[in-house]
Amino acid sequence: MHVHTIQLNIEKLLGGTVHMDASEFGAYMSLIIAAYQSGNQLPNDDKRLARMARVTGHKWAKIKDVVLEKFELKGEFYEQNFIKKDLERMGS
């Protein structure tokens, strides 16, 4: 399933990311989009995650802990609970 539109709760988004700098926030949003497109399964692979987040491997090593704190590692994949619920609501 390819998701073309997502709804964002701006209050929750801003409240949950206020501690992030611009590069962390950009990487986080890129991973959110990738998670929707991948059915909420991001690989536990730093090289691939850095590419999905649109940052260099060096930058990823510096920001990954902050960016991934909103994701949960389940087996070999990172997932987001709110994306899971959203995808279920959409019928995927």
Task: Describe what you observe in this structure.
By secondary structure, the chain is mainly alpha-helical. It has helices at 10-17, 22-37, 46-53, 57-68, 81-90; strands at 42-43, 72-74, 77-79. The chain has a three-stranded antiparallel sheet with strand order 1-3-2. The model has no long low-confidence stretch (mean pLDDT 91).
Brief account:
This protein is mainly α. It contains 5 helices and 3 strands, in the order ααβααββα.
The SS-based structural class is mainly alpha
Oligomer: single chain
Largest sheet: 3 strands, antiparallel
How does the overall form come out from the CA principal axes? globular
> Roughly how many Å is the radius of gyration?
13 Å
Q: Enumerate the strands of the largest sheet in spatial order, edge to edge or round the barrel.
A: 1-3-2
Measured as a percent range, the helix fraction is 55-70%
Mean of all residue-level pLDDT scores: 91
- The secondary-structure element order is HHEHHEEH
Report the end-to-end length measured between terminal Cα atoms. Answer: 7 Å
Uncertain segments of ≥5 residues (pLDDT<50)? none
**Tally of individual helices:** 5
Features:
92 residues; 3-stranded antiparallel beta sheet; 5 helices; 3 strands
Topology:
Blueprint: H1 10-17, H2 22-37, E1 42-43, H3 46-53, H4 57-68, E2 72-74, E3 77-79, H5 81-90
Antiparallel strand pairs: 1-3, 2-3
Helix pairs in contact: 2-3, 2-4, 3-4
